[in-house]
Amino acid sequence: MSTLTELRTDAGARYAAAVAELREAYIELAGIEAAMNNGNVPDRAVVTFRGDADRIPHELRHPNFYPEAGDSLRDAWIARRDHLIAQHAGSQHRTERANGTD
Prior knowledge:
This protein is an all-alpha fold and 102 residues long. It has helices at 4-36, 73-88, 91-99. Helix 1 (4-36) crosses helix 2.
């Protein structure tokens, strides 16, 4: 039988991994949707988050397993958005040109 300390350690590791995955998924999804809503890419605008989170909420932080890292979610998703816009902006025109429809 595991001790409470061992159970806590295992649960804490799972929690830290889950919050890290939530952070990465938020950055990816927010960046993609912000790029789509930018107007400079061929994709249609989409409904997105109701706000602009910049940090993992205090209620989800844990002093041992997921403390405040000081990094900005906003800065990360904006960088992802900018990369995607640069990658996809004008792709509709390139596609039309390749198809001879421009």
